[in-house]
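2024-03-11 09:14:02 INFO worker-7 job=invfold-0412 stage=load source=structure_tokens
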């Protein structure tokens, strides 16, 4: 069974690479037709908005207002797709904080999960196995980390619709000397 999954993953990877190669080929052809590298990038549209390679930047690397825009889009996905579709009632074994946007670790993990979801649910780049790969390789590990007893929501409790956040204790600096 594992070999079959590996083969399907490999097929999906080849399909993604083929699609990326086609985009690059078109960019080179449009550059050869009299365009400059700068105009080729502008024609691509997504290159300026996304990263250098045409991929979206990781949310923690963004500055306002791009961070705020990305966070708004992430909130829409988390609240519109993830919460109703995948999160059951929170419990001691499966925590969730409705103020998850106040937890930077949660933002980072959920953003990475969302980026993977965008790629692996696009049939043009992932084939038929993308959603399965997303569940197995991204969703399940992410939820285990977020909702576990040692996850970022460990100090959050549910009680009368209020969430209490426990601040971390002060950690003594290893650099200071106490003589």
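2024-03-11 09:14:09 INFO worker-7 stage=emit residues=179
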């Amino acid at each position: 069974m594992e070999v079959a999954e590996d083969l399907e993953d490999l097929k999906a990877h080849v399909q993604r690479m083929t699609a990326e190669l086609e985009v690059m080929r078109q960019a080179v052809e449009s550059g050869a037709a009299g365009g400059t590298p700068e105009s080729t990038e502008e024609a691509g549209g997504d290159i300026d908005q996304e990263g250098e390679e045409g991929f979206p930047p990781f949310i923690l690397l963004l500055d306002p207002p791009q961070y705020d825009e990305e966070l708004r889009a992430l909130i829409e996905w988390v609240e519109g797709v993830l919460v109703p579709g995948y999160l059951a009632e929170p419990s001691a074994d499966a925590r969730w904080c409705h103020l998850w946007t106040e937890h930077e670790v949660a933002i980072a993990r959920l953003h990475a999960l969302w980026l993977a979801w965008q790629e692996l649910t696009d049939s043009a780049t992932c084939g038929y196995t993308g959603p399965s790969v997303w569940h197995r390789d991204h969703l399940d590990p992410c939820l285990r980390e977020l909702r576990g007893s040692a996850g970022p929501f460990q100090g959050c409790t549910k009680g009368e619709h209020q969430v209490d956040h426990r601040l971390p204790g002060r950690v003594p600096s290893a650099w200071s000397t106490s003589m």
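2024-03-11 09:14:09 INFO worker-7 stage=report msg="The longest strand covers residues 158-159."
2024-03-11 09:14:10 INFO worker-7 job finished
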